[in-house]
């Protein structure tokens, strides 16, 4: 599927999944996850009760607030999904659930921002303002890190206010007929702004701030 989505701390544009059917055969297709107009196809973590806390809105474009560079300001219109104000609201979950997938996501962060993309709602590729940090000092919590698991090989981060991208090939965990896990989830490849920062990184279990549900073959994308 082709994905598109965006926000203050994170903005996404396009991606592709390979879904797995109940019989285990691949069912590959492409789908846009954000139509540029509204939140159709997405729901709030915590359900309708969390909606009041949401700061997500659709805008035409974003740029750093010149008075408060820790925030992004949106221009009225359509095309970009912005987690506005201070960006502290509720998480978004895709209604679509995925297994193995390929995702292209584009994002824009304000100064000091901290966010992430959670595959199946459980395994995070970190988004952070890591601009200018030396490679030797990188941790799994830096931009592009597989949280709790592996730091990026190199720092490919752009400055706050500049658009960035991830291209991720994700392999979902495997289970036998009895539901017992037989293989961990794995990030086969993560490319940040055109630079390969991970290859074949196995994730033993859900990362911090995930949905916290039992691991399974399918799950939503979480922003």
Give the CATH H-level superfamily: Exo-inulinase, domain 1
Please tell me how large the radius of gyration is.
Answer: 17 Å
Structural class: mainly beta
How far apart, in Å, are the first and last alpha carbons? 17 Å
* CATH level-two architecture: Sandwich
In the CATH scheme, what's the topology name? Jelly Rolls
Weakly predicted, low-confidence segments? 1-24
Q: What top-tier CATH class fits best?
A: Mainly Beta
Q: Oligomer, anyone?
A: single chain
Beta-strand fraction estimate: 35-45%
Mean pLDDT, nearest integer?
87
Helix content bin: under 10%
**What is the overall silhouette?**
globular
Largest beta-sheet details: 6 strands, antiparallel
Could you explain the architecture of this structure?
The chain has 223 residues and is mostly beta strands. It is 0% helix and 42% strand. The protein has no helices and 15 strands. The strands form 5 sheets. Strands 2-1-7-10-13-14 form a 6-stranded antiparallel β-sheet, with no helix packed on it. It has a 3-stranded antiparallel β-sheet with strand order 3-6-15, with no helix packed on it. It is globular.
Please summarize what this structure is:
The chain is mainly beta and 223 residues long. It has strands at residues 16-20, 26-30, 42-44, 56-64, 72-83, 92-98, 101-107, 114-119, 123-128, 164-171, 174-175, 181-183, 185-192, 195-203, 219-222.
């Amino acid at each position: 599927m082709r994905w598109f989505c965006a926000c203050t701390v994170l903005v996404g544009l396009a991606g592709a999944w390979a879904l797995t059917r109940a019989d285990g055969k691949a069912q590959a297709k492409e789908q846009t996850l954000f139509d540029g107009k509204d939140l159709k196809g997405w729901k709030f973590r915590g359900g309708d009760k969390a909606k009041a806390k949401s700061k997500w809105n659709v805008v035409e474009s974003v740029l750093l607030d010149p008075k408060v560079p820790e925030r992004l300001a949106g221009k009225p219109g359509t095309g970009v999904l912005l987690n506005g104000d201070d960006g502290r609201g509720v998480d978004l979950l895709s209604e679509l659930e995925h297994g193995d997938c390929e995702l292209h996501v584009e994002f824009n962060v304000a100064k000091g921002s901290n966010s992430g993309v959670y595959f199946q709602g459980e395994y995070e590729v970190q988004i952070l303002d890591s601009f200018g940090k030396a490679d030797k000092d990188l941790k799994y919590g830096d931009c592009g890190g597989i949280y709790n698991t592996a730091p990026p090989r190199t720092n490919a981060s752009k400055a706050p206010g500049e658009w960035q991208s991830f291209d991720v090939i994700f392999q979902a965990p495997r289970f036998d007929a009895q539901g017992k896990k037989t293989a961990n989830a794995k990030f086969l490849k993560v490319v940040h702004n055109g630079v390969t920062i991970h290859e074949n990184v196995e994730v033993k279990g859900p990362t911090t701030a995930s949905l916290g549900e039992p691991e399974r073959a399918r799950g939503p994308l979480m922003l």
